[in-house]
Structures are given as C-alpha cells and as structure tokens.
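Lab meeting, action items carried over

1. Structure of the two-component assembly. Owner: GW. Status: complete.
Input record:
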Amino acid sequence: MDPDPVVDRSAVGEGTVVPERGSRLAQAFRLLRALLRHHKRLFFTAVTGAAVFAACTVASAALVSKITDDIIGPRFNEGSVRARTVVSILGVLILLGVIRAAGVVVRRTWAGRTAWRVTETISADVVDALVAQPVPWHRRQSTGDLITRAGVDAEAATAILGPMPFATSVILMIVLAGVWLVVTDVVLGLAAVCVFPLLIMLNLRYQKKVDAFYMTAQDELGQLSSAVHESFDGVAVVKSFGAEARETERLSAIAARLREARMSAVRLRSLFESLLDGIPTAVNVLLLVGGAYRVRSGAMTIGDLASFLYMFVLLVFPLRLIGYALSELPHSQAGWDRIRALLDQPIEPDPAATQRRVAGHGVTLRDVHFSHDGERDVLAGVDADIPGGRTVAVVGATGSGKTTLLHLVAGLIAPSAGEVAVPAEGVALVFQEAFLLAGSARENITLGAPVGDEEVAAALEVAEASFVLALPDGLNTVVGERGVGLSGGQRQRLALARALVRRPAVLLLDDTTSALDPATEAKVLRNLRAALADTTVVAVASRPSTIALADDVLFLSGGRVVAHGRHHELMATVPSYRTLIEAFEHDREAMEQRVGGGE
Amino acid sequence: MTEPISRWSAVETIGRGVRAAPALRAGFGLTLFLAMVGAGGRVVVPIVIQQAIDHGFRDGQVHIRTILVLAAFGISAVALATWAQRTAVYRLGRRSEEALYGLRASLFQHIHRMSIEDHNEERKGALVARVTSDVETLAQFFQWGGIAWLLDSTLMLLVAGVMLAYDWVLALVAFVVAAPLAIVLRMVQGHLVKAYDQARQSNAEVMTQLSELVSGAETLRAYDAGQHYTAKVKEVSHQRSNSFIRAGTIGAFLFPSGEVFNVLTVSAVVCVGVLRGPASGLTAGAMVGFVFLTQRFLEPIAEFTEVLDMTQTAVAGMRRVLGVLEIPIGPPEPDMPLTLPAGPLTVTADRVDFSYRSRGEDDEPPVLIDVNLHIPAGQQVAVVGETGSGKTTLGRIIARMADPSAGSIALGGVPLTRVANADLRTRLTVVPQEPFLFEGSIAANLLFARPGLTEADLLAAIDTLDLRDWLDALPDGLATQVGQRGTQLSAGERQLVALIRASLVDPDVLVLDEATSSVDALTEVRIAHALERLAEGRTTIAIAHRLSTAARADRVLVLDHGRLVEDGTHDELLRSDGTYRRMYDAWVAATSS
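Predicted assembly:
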C-alpha cells in the first residue's frame, strides 16, 4: 500500500513540480508493488521474456562484428571465406533472431495478461465496495465520478503494467550493451555509455513537457464536448432566438483553444522528436571517428567498430520508448490514488439495521427526524401508526418530506433520531422514477430473486403490465437503455411488478402511478387491493382520484404529520389540507368557472 | 443509422475532405520535400560506414583524413535532416490542426442551420459524435498516422533507392525476402482489428454494467440485488480481460515477425553477397551498409501496417463528417426577403402537409394532412389532440423550425419562405415544452434572447410578468446559477425563465408548447398568471396538453392523426359531442375526487 499518497498526488497532480528521479523511480516501484499483489507470477514471466529479448538483442549486435570480420572481410579483402564459417555465423544470427522474437511474444503477451488481470481484480474490489456502501453514501457521491473510478481509473492505474516489462528490458539491454561496449573497447565504450543517460533524460524531459500540453488539450476537448452537447441539445432555443451565428462563434472559440493547445504540443514534439532522431545519429558518426583512431592503434577491428555502431542503432528505438513508458506513470498513479481513495473509505453501516423488526404487517414511526445536511430537518418528529393491510395515501406539498418518509420505511436511509418499526417479512419500494437495468424483462423483474415465470406473470397481471408478455421475445425481451423503448407508464408498471413479485408485507409507492393515465391507474390500484388483501400499501399521491382510492390519508406538512384520517374528514377539519387539495384541483376549478361564465 | 452516410470511395472521400479543409493542401509539396530531406538523416550512418570501410580503411590502413571529411559531411547532413524533419512535422501538424478547426467550425455552423427535423432525438447523439469523436479520429490520425505516412514512406523509398544504388541484385534479394513480411503483417493485422473490435465491445458492456450499478444503486439496495449484479459485472469484466488478452496476444506477434524477417533478410543478403564476391563490383563497405540498411528498411513496415488501419478509421470518420455537411441546411433564407407588416400578425395555413423526411422510410405516415386555418391578429388559440396528433409539429412549422412538405404558412399575409430569419425571430417566439436552459446564471439565459439588454431591462420584463417575488426569493436573484441544462431549478422554475426569456423578444406571435411535467401548485399558479400576461395583445398559439388551457382560449383547434377535425370555442366543441368532448370527459374523470 502507498504509505504517503497525499504527498505523491500533489506532486503528480499539478504537473509543475519536478520530482527527483529517485523519488520517481521509488514511486514507480511502490505503485508496481501495490498493483501486483495478486499477479506477481504473470508479471515476472513478462519480465523474463523481456530479459531474453534484451540479451539476444545485444548478442545479435555483437554478431555483426563476426559477419564483418569473419565473412565480409575475408571474402572481399582476401578473396575467399569458408562456407562452414558463413553457415555457422548466419545460423547463430537466425537462431538469435528467433529466440529474440519469442522473447518479445512472451513479454508482450504476459504484460497484457498482467495488466488486464490486475484491472479485473481492481474492478471487482471497486464493485464490491460500491455495492457494500449504503444509499446515504451513494447520495453523497457524484454518479459520473463513481463510474469513472470503477471504469476508467481502474484501467488508467494498470496502464503502467503494459510497458513496464519493456522498460525493464531496455534497462537490462543498456546494462548488457554497456558492458559489451566497455569490454570491446574501454575508451570508446565509456564514451558511448555516457550518451545513454543523456538521451534518457532528454526523453523524460520531453515526455513530461509534451504530456502537460496534451493534458491541457484533453481538458479543452472535454469542454468542447460538453459545450457541443449543450448547444445541440438546446437547438430549438438557438433557432427560436435566431442565435445560430452566436452559437457557432461560441463553439468555434472553444475549438480554437483546443487547436492552440495542440499546436503547442506539435511545436514541442516536432523539435524533440527530430532531436531524438538526430542526436544519436550524430553521436554514431562521432563514434565512427573515435573508432577509426582505435582501429588504427589496433585496439579494435573494423568488425568490432561495425558492431559498435549497429548496437547503437538498435538501442535508439527502445530508448525512445522508455520515456513513453515512464510517461504513463503519473496517469497510473493518479488513477490508483483515486481508486484507493474509494476503496479506503470504511463501509458505512446499513440503515436498514436501525429498523425494528416486528410481527404483522403494520408500520410504526416514533418521533422520527431526518436531515440531509444536519441542519435543516426534512422530517421533524413524525409519528404515525399504519395498521397492517391498510392503503394509506401520503399527501403533502412539494418538499414536505413524502419521499424521505418512504425511503425511511424502506430502510434505504436511517433516521437521525426516532424509531422506525417495519414487518420482519419485508418491504418493497417502487421509486418515483423507474430504473430499468440493461437486461431481459425477466431479469428486471426478478433482480436475481429465485422466482418462477408463473409468479412473474401473476405480478405483471396485477401491475397491468402484461404487455411485457406480448413483447417480441416475451420475458426475454431486452429492455433498458439499449433495449426496446418503453413509455414512462410502461416502465413504472414493470417496476411495480418487480415489487409485487416479492410478495412484500408493505408496498411503498412513490407517486408510482402518476405516469399512468387515470383509468389504468384506477385499475392498478383496484388490482392491488384484490391481490394483496393483507399487504399494507403506503402511496405518495397528488391526484385527487388516487387519494380517493386510499383508506386513509397521512397529511405531511413542514416535516410533521399534521393529520391522519379519512379524506373527507380531513377536508372538513383540516383547512391546510383542504387548501392543498384545492390547489391540485386548481386547473379544474379555473375551467369550471370559465365554463360557467360561458353559459 | 438513420443519417445519410456518403458512400464515396476512400480516394474520393480524401479528395472531398481536402476540399472541405483546404488548409491540408496549402504548402503540402514543400512539406513533402522537407520530409524527404529529413528521411535522409536516417541513411547517413549506413552510407558513412560504407564509405569509411571502402575508402577510410582501404588496404589495411586507416585514413583518418578521409574519415574526418566523411564525418564532417555526415554531421552536416544530420543537422540539415534534423532541421528538415522538424519543419516538415511542424508544418504538417499546424496545417492539420488548422484544417480540423476549420472542419469543426463548418460543422457547427452547418448543424445549427439544419432543419429542426434533422435534430430529432435519435440523431442528436450522432451529431455530437460527428463534431467530437469523429473529428478526434482525424486528429489522432494526423498526430500519428499522418506523420508516419510522411516520414516512413519517404524513408522506405530512400532506403530502397540507396540499396539499389549499391547493388541492384542484393537490393532485389532483400526486397524479395522481406516482401512476405508485409503479407504476414496484413494477415495478423486483420485478426488484430477484429479482436480489438470485440474487446472494445466487451469494454462498452463493462462500462454499461458499471454505470447501471452506480446509477441504479438505490434500486439495487431496495431490492437487495447487489450480489446478483456484482456477479454479473465481475463476469463481464472477466470476459473483457479475456478478449483484451486475446487481442494482445495476436498483437504480440506483429513486431517479432519483423525481427525474424530482419535476420532472414540479412542472412540472405550476406549469402548472395559472398557468392557474388568482389568480382561483381560489390564492396565490403556496401555489404556492411546493407546490414544497416535492412534494419532501416524493415523498421517502418510494422508501423506502416498499423498506420493503414488508422487511415481506414480516419477515412471512415471523414466520410461521416462529410455526410453531415451534405445534409441540406434547414429552411433556406429567401433570396429577396419581404418585410413583415408592423403590428399584430395574422397566421394562415394553406393546405399544409408534413412528413418527417429524416425518419426515412416511405411508409412513415404524414404528420399533418391538409391543414387549413386562419388565425386573426391577436387571437388566443389552443391546439389540442392526443399524443402523435401532430399538434407539436404544427407549432414547429408555424415557427418555421421546418418547412411543410406541401402547402404554405403565412404571417401577416407574407409567406414564411419569403421572410428573413432575423426578421422572423424578432416577431415570433416559441416557448418549448421542456424549456432548455444553458449552464450559467439566470441573467445569462435571459440575455440569450437579446444580448445587450441591461439588468434594468430584465427586471422590467420580470415585473411585467409579476414574477418579481419569485426572483427575489431565489438565493442570488438574477445571478442564480441554473446548473447543467437548468437542473438546479425545478421544472416549473425553468418554465418561468423560459417565459421571461420569450417576453424579452416582445414578439407579435407567440407559440407556446405547454409543459407536461408536473409542477407544484404554487409555481403552477405563477406560470398560469405569467402566461396570461405574456399572451396579452399577441397572436398566441398554445399547443395545449391540459384542457384547462383550452377552456381559457378564444378558440380551440382539435387535431386528430394529422387532420384538423374540430375548430370552435370550448363551449361549442363540448356541445358538438366529438373528439373534444371525449377528451374532456376523460379529463374530468381523472381530476375528480
């Protein structure tokens, strides 16, 4: 685990602080250790492949000296060469080439395995944490942020694992090549070896700078995307105010910022990449000059010199990639930090555990308080006794705490004070907005519960949702975002069936039937009565027709139960209730006046 | 896909793309020449070595002077090539960024000028994708693929040229032995692309599942379905890993096959070279040079095969982008516009038909059929009808968001097709069903209607609609932030902002598409009142979803399956016992307690 994530994050996040190389390597090492906890073997297989590759690369470059001195030299200067020599040298060359290729295959394959298996492990941990955290925790998070962490960040964190074995092989290659170069010729070897760190440093510097530009560009691109989204969404407004030209200008200005950010990157890139090509070539030419002196003094052969230069050529490309590999480090570290931040949060207690479980089908609330922010009480001392088997309409103005009340009874949230007692047999809540998951209609109804198709069909019938059976593939029809489109009312009836199939002791409906037309709504409510005689139904309602179908009304105002009784009693005795119901009927009254006036 | 995608060939697409983004062509010849010079840097080392071996180490002696002269030439060549490569890459990068910017700007302009019917829900996402991800595909291409085309192709040509100049027989041997590599790479690449497609699909699946696990957290909790869905997500995540590992394994063979071909080619060249010997004119330097050149020649091939696929993706992206630019722009501006008469305006529809062109299929039923109507100036009209009756569309074509397929609409006697857009937008305003607000303050959203108004102007308009008390109750008044798409405000408040915004235009014709979303009672009263104030003295066409609005109107038009079936006052229509009467009865039943 990362012992000091805060310090590291600030260093990475701002991008202006240049960490020392030591700390950067140490950081890479810590990150690797954290990521590889469960998949060390995969990673070391990849590193082994990389080592084979490195060794063979150096060996094949060394072989160029043999080709030059033992084949080309004798043939072209002395006139002949033994066939056996040619065959054996070239045989070794081909063999080395094949082994080297095999090393690459092993390295790349296992590097990929490592990265993806680690991603899988991390995603699983994240998913477990997400599911374990209760609703109040989820409400404090931004949905988009959580999705990013579980998906994108898990991938970003492991991005370093792909190029890592390659980077180790490059380091190994540099060491081996350096040793070979020095052993072949101390003077020239040392000169060549000095160039490697310089090139690596130039490379890292460049990667860091260019990354900053690309990061800015990525930001600008994000802003452009959301602006474009917004602008095209609002196309009707844009048109109705004749603002087409203004919008084009606004979006173009953002696109111009993106262009400028990219342009800075291009400027830097064109210079550095050309230098990273040109400098090694120039060094190579200089090495040739130095080599000429060494050959003259008899310290090395022409073949050695050719090998020397060839080795240099072979190393230039990997050297360029090491900068790329290390440039993944800040992204991976940032991704990992964000994942850790999520995983390190303690799992909060389950609000349902605060409920008292009682026998029977009734629901009792005793002096229940609830507040989102700890300051303003949404519910300020609710007392209610709902006897089993009754149908109760919860009525109140917007913001009176109706939905909160239902969520408390459902055990999704815990009261800040007071007690909620619910039947041990279980409560099912149908949300205001039906949420369908991508999957079959059956899966959306059962949500993994072990119920048969007959029970599903029965629930659908009560919910007036038998249309599901008539869909192209019946219960197997894929619904949800990427499946067949269902209307708001259809979704709600499906969601209702989801609750019914569990045969709950208490059914909570959060304005569930509002998306249905009044006739269907009435049918559904009648079906519920007939099918669930002893189930307690608590329904948030705003339509007079819905309220009329309930046994009792629970009237909420200012976070308290102002009245609990039959509708007509409340109309007669509670003036504020009467005002509210009249507001609901405002439309109708306005019309009746108009109709009356017209006749 | 419902949108038209150009079916041009790759070459044609590139040609058209270059015409749509002329920055790409500007100075391209010079860029290409510089790239050629830049590639020269890569053959400096082989040539210098060949020269050194053949002339510098002649006859067992080391001729330092020759070597020094060679090195001086070599270093100068490298310096020149480095500069040339930098300039070429920079020129290409700059031109392509300019081109992409130009392409985006023309897309913005074009898309905003397209008819509202081309902006239907199913296409919105596609349009956004054209401007963002498709243009990004092109950007990616220019950042890597374009440069690779430029540098790699010139390098390969140059290396091949040098090889041929040294010894054409050996060069041919090298080409023949190396050629199958290209074929092997293409084959691997084919599998690779498919494998990655599959991997990307499984990735999308994981992202969907994850996003549902998060967005549906409350539902999953309420139904204790967390475990079930966790297992599901873990399964798709495992599948994703498998498919990426599979793709990675295929990809792992790409680079090494180049390595194998490298040693094979070097061996073949050395064998043939040794057989031919110095008698053929071949030198030892050229032989060693060949070993270096083979490496240089094969290096770009692997990259090239990737670039080919990138190019295909980019061409496909370009094709889609051009496809959007091909969609005709919305109601066209008149050549010789007529000015609308001053004062309140009449609205006339003459034999209007309408069908949605962009929804494609011919069997799509027309949305409006033979609609004729005349609305006198200043009249308050309500249009009612069931979902799909065409009432929203009627509002849209009166506002000229789209033109009728047949027949015509006239304002104040002037056909809409002869009215300049700028003129129309100051005389007619639409308040849409779900008012759209831009992220920003309330003031900024109001100013969208008429930039340049002062705060006092805005407050005056708010006073006129009797909404001052509402505004004052907001935390920051006019500066209150509305959030993305206005979500910080309630649905009712968004409608209030839209009403104020419309009133700022002070239009003579008002098209109101009534909201369906439920609103709390107090806001409901406010909206109704503000609407009344706004409609005063203007010709008003309300697309009514509630019959109370119809009851208040001077006149009710009833649409049924695209036809105007009833036209009269509320009372008349109630008495006539037709479509309207049936709708009314159903509504009364719903609202009775």
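2. GW to write a short summary for the group page. Key points so far: Chain A touches chain B through 153 residues (CB under 8 Å). The two ends of chain A are 81 Å apart (CA to CA).
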